[in-house]
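ARCHIVE CARD
Drawer: 12
Card no.: 0347
Subject: one protein chain, sequence and derived structure
Cross-reference: see card 0346
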Amino acid sequence: MKKYLFLSIAFLSLGGVLFSAFSAEKIQEPIANQISWVGLEKAAQLAKSNPKPILIDVYTDWCKWCCVMDETTYLDAEMIKYINTNFYAVKLNAEHKEAIQFQGKNYKYVSSGRRGIHEAAIALLGNRPSYPSTILLDENLQEREILKGYQKKEQLLPILREFVEEQEQEQL
């Protein structure tokens, strides 16, 4: 009986050591990649020194579909890799209260009742705000495309690929 008890304890201990080793290994690995979001001003600076298109996600904190897109589309590993490789990615809160300088213009938050809107969001969305919206700028910071509404990976990724291919063709 003592022999079986000893063997049981030995196996449990060994199992615990192995479990700890594998668990520690998992913790040391990155949990998940994520999109390298930068501010609009920073993306413009980066595009000047190393030209790449800019993807702008215009959102608000209260927008349900903005949150769903963050939790699905923008957490997909293939999307993360593609966006990080081919774009400077910008998160633009349409209700951001700090001034933004972009393309030589100063944009500020405009209060309107309980909520307001940032002039940068108005300008980028052609005075027709809608959330979420995805804006694609070429490497010269010229607006090329506005995608309004929630975009699944299956919808957005082909559009991004086509956009990048068009940009590459124009460079030839």
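Annotation on reverse: The chain is about 45% helix and 25% strand. The beta strands are 37-38, 54-59, 88-93, 100-102, 105-107, 109-112, 115-118, 133-137, 143-148.
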